[in-house]
Structures
1.
Amino acid sequence: NSKKKTTKTLKDIWNELRKTPLQYATIPAVAAFLGLYTNYAGVKMLFYPIEYTGTQWYRDPAVPYGLFGWQGVVPCKTEKMASRLVQIVTERLLTVKEAFGRIEPDRLAALLIPIVEEELKKEPYGDIWVKILHPFLPLVLTHVVGNLQIEIDDILDLKTVVLEAFVRDKVVLVDLFQKVGRVELDFLVESGLGFGFILGLVQMIAWVVTPKPWTLPVAGAVVGYVTNWIAIKLLFDPVEPVMVGPVKVQGLFESRQVEVSEEFGSFMAGRVLNSRRILESLSKDAENGELYSFLRRQLPYPVPEFILAAAVRAIAKAAENPEVYPDLHRYITSSLDIRETLSERLKLLSPIEFEDLLHPVFQEDEVLLIAAGGVLGALAGLGQTQLGWGGPGATLRAILTLTFVSISSWGYFLFKEVIETPEEVHLVEEKIVKRPVKLRRMNTLVQVQPESIPDWLVIPEFR
């Protein structure tokens, strides 16, 4: 009897769906649309606006939201997130002594001599001083650079250089996370379409079984909440590869470790630890800075102070004018080899250590991001109840709804691929330029092991 009752219930549901299929089809369609756009809004809220926008009532700078306002999670918590990133770079990936150890003192000295002489000429009787010092500068500067390599940890604080780059300009950290997490962020948005549709089918059955005013808003809230939760989980879980039969399952971000490592190294070398920033940090505070004190220790007091000051000014001048001294900047960039070092070391991290690179973006206010999906889902469900089930015009309203959500969902992909052409930021001789992104195959959450593929599915090679 129990089995018969279940069969009857399923028949009743099927018969009910057949009566007004278009109207019921709006439920999963709207749920898919909702999943796509709530996730899109959630991702944008992670990064924008850069500065707080809204009223200052009950505004706490430590959180992204105010009573009536919002600031992107990453810009709001730049210092905290940057500090974690700095810890990864300085403790696991790179030491400034190692990087500077690759520089050849005589070559760097040769590139610095003309700039130092330019600054000396600005001093009283500068031309005379240049003629006197010119024969000795190669030897003296080579000696100074050699000792600088030994004491570089006391003169250049790598943590400060990286942290200041992010804190001074919040856009740098936003750009970094958006670059290295591009695939994950796209997945987070676009998975909302599929997950939303599947959960929308459940929502539709719930409406058939319990057609109450609260059914769609409650189910919509569940759809919005669950789609965000599932998508975020799939980004990072499982951290280590897990075999499910012949299929290897791993979090999307961890599965892209090689690709992300290359992008991270490229970005850091171009935007954060480039030659311009390093020279700028070396010459910071002029005559009150660490570099001046170092030069004073290296050169005895008979050497006039204005010569030391001219040397520090020369470093600052080179930092400010990379286009004037391209050979110097190219040599420093190639010698330090920041891009390759960071990239290769990052590839060697364990998946758990590697996860720390991007996961903090989602951990910060992750609950808020998921809850936002639930709230927007409830509002969409409330709107669906106003469609009017049955009666005059119900079919027309259903057709209009289906048309709207279909065009809107398709419009997202059109906007992304055609109108909003993805761009990457590159540094060419310290000038920032933008180029179209070369689209790559998107990594998947699951990978089938080659040995598990049946012979009849293998495509033969044609010669």
Note: The beta strands are 53-54, 65-66, 69-70, 242-244, 247-249, 423-428, 431-436, 446-448.
2.
Amino acid sequence: MQRRLLSAASTACVGAALLSRRGVRAFAVVPSAAAARRSSGTLGGRFAKQRAGDGDSASASTSSASSSSWILRAASTASGDGDSSPFSELYGNTLLSIQQCIGAAEQQQTTQSANKPKVVFVDGSWYHKPDPSTGLLRNPAEEYIDGPRLPNTRYLDIDAIATTYDLFPECNPKKLPHMMPPPKLFGLAMDAYGIGNEDHVIVYARRGALFTPRAWFLFLSMGHDPGRVHLLQGSLEDYADAGGTVETHSPIESEKKDGEGYFAERYADCFDGGILNVPLLHQKYYSTAVTQYNAVPSARHMCDKEEVLEAVTSNMDGGNGPKTVIVDTRGSGYSKKGHMPTAIHLPYSSIATPDNSLAIQPKEALKELFEERGVDYLDPELKIILSCGSGVSVCHGYLALKELGREITEDNTRIYDGSWAEWGKEEDLPKVLQDE
């Protein structure tokens, strides 16, 4: 099927010349007209039956101190100080096996205290399409409330802990979905969850969810020590089938156990059935609270459309300057909805294992994915911008690069937060679209 390249008039001539030089004759360049406890039991057969129907800051920091604190933590990690907590064996391991998570849950039960580093499980379940078996979009918050859950789990909603139009209209006037949150909002949410900078965070999801790397990356982008942010390789169901401990009681009961490291008592009024009410948290505390959790001053590794446009224009111009590789991790949307000129397609589904969407491919397979597309991911001088549909599946690409040992810096590996949700609607931005 013939495709056409839509671009702003200002880039039409150079784009046409480049495409002509490259022998891409199927394109036409035209201006765009479109605008728990073990006693709680394990998941096992009981869950199958259940689902069949299917504190005030004493040492608070300003944002400047927050930045300094994060830099000190990073320096400490780089110098080899690492982690001396009871969970030090987890430190630096991004991907955790089922057995590692079972061990962490058991260790957590014997060392839990509000005043020491701990393991916190985070349910990052998020669904972008209806369940194929029912035709309905699953509600991860309701599933979290109904249980079961891994012990001491918080539910994190990437649509709520975000720069939403409702809370920050001046920062998101286009009403783009799940944009990275202001660090202060993230810090407030962490205070409410009782999560500290030194805690180990293990992100997991239920079978059928796909995008736990997005919740994992959120912690990294906000400045949590990368060595203390982990991903369960597999689902909640996989964990329980292997004998892992789960909670089946109501999260409301957990809210009352602040002394055991659950939800912070100060913010108890911002939880509804165990779910953090982010608008209420924002209304009551955002303008006045000084957070105990130290987030970085601004989200890390993020870029905007201007930075992407500069890269696209430079790539199309074919000059001698440093090249930027744009990697698009969408699935069929890459060809059906269009993409940026010069973007390379690397579907997020190819990064996950074929038989388990919540596990990542081994390194050899990941290496092949990038090498067959001509991406020299080990070159720290090569700038890589990752994009997708709305800034979610793009985190699969970032995770893959990290697992492959890329020397990631703030400048050489970027995520386009707005992604195609923004780019596709901008009339003056260059696009490669399918003919209708």
Note: Residues 1-81, 256-261 have pLDDT under 50 and may be disordered.
3.
Amino acid sequence: MAKLWGYLFLTTLLQKTFESAFSGAEQVTPPPLPILPLPTYSQLKWQQRELIMFHHFGVNTFTDSEWGTGQENPAMFNPTGLDTNQWVDSAVKAGFSLVILTAKHHDGFCLWPSKYTDHSVIKSPWRNGQGDVIRELANAAEAHGIDMGLYLSPWDRHDPRYGNERLYNEYYLAQLQELLNKYGSIREIWFDGAKGSNAPNMSYYFSDWFSMVSELQSTINIFSDAGPGVRWVGNENGYAGETCWSTINRTSLSIGNGSIVDYLNKGDPKGTNWLPAECDVSIRTGWFWHKSQSPKKLSKLLKIYYNSVGRNCVLLLNVPPNTTGLLAEQDVQRLQEFHKAIDVIFSTNLAEGCYLKASSQRGGKGSDFGPEKSLDGDHLWTYWAAGDDDKDKQWIEIGANNGGIKFNVVRIQEAIGLGQRIKRHEIYADGKRVASGTTVGYKRLHRLRAGLVDARNVRIKILDSRGLPLISSIGLHFDPFWNPKRKLLL
């Protein structure tokens, strides 16, 4: 009998322990369900870069042209002072983590010694015909701890196989295999549909190319008008649409189709593919270096930043090497000014130290989804989430503990790892609307048109979203370079 009572006591104790543990687990509110489609791991890492540098370099650099003819003599390519370490060092100091090089532009001249053509550095006096620009850049990037990408122009004005569909696609695939096998990890590869109106009519085997790329480089992002990793933003001004979804329907896209640029610029809230936009623009007027040109003013670069990174995109800024093989000193100086300005504006978040409150909180007080998560430094996986029943009046508010907050930039970021959600939002300072917008995505920056605001509380209202909004980060910043004519005094 004693053994029986002992057995029953032990059984009861284990059952209570199990029930207690299960009950405790039930009390932890899980994250909300994602809103599809979702980004891949590589797309998330790409988005977090924010800034990528492009280098247009080749025979056009020496002919003072943008589109070469394909008839250039390779002997004119002779950058006697070429130093890819200077390129990469300049990129790193300006806050860039990836550099992309034009391995071959439309003229067909190759910056590496391809075994499939001699229209390359092989026939150049540079390094006595033994040079390899891509190898030197890959070594420099590795030494400085940043990543490399490549552009291989589909249009080739030199190679006689161009126009013969099978022969040219074989040639192009062969060069892709050279580039993706010989130079280590390539994190982005660029494809486009650019070609002249008089170019031979032929089809590119993009599906074959993309399959080969994915086979050879598992962490690469493929850029083109139609992705599949990153899409073109639809212009070369560096501007995304005020509404910019990372979602789109790839079935509606085709490479080189000029009629879809507006769709590319805005994306599609009903899109079934995650395909974020990259905004490409040159620091100068042209893409290749020209002695007569100068870099854009700092104010222009900052406007581009707000209209690209600040609209849920990544900025691809072209900085072309000169005939010596170096980035021009005035370009490097402007890059440093640009980097310093971004640091001055965003290194201080005036919302830190303020109190936060929200319309509701998923799981109630004490859960992992409180408004304080929007200030914890994690811009992806921690976030404020409204309660499931809070569907009409969702808001998060920043309040000053003492005095007011003086700012002219508002930053909002979504937890895009669970999908892009916000369709429409407004920002109020002490009850007065100071900004409004549509999409947010990874990052939305509002540089207030009215100028400096001095307020005790700032409320961000979510007016419409796909499911419940998830705000991973918010910020109030002061941009000393922003001086609009009108001022707003609250």
Note: The radius of gyration is 27 Å.
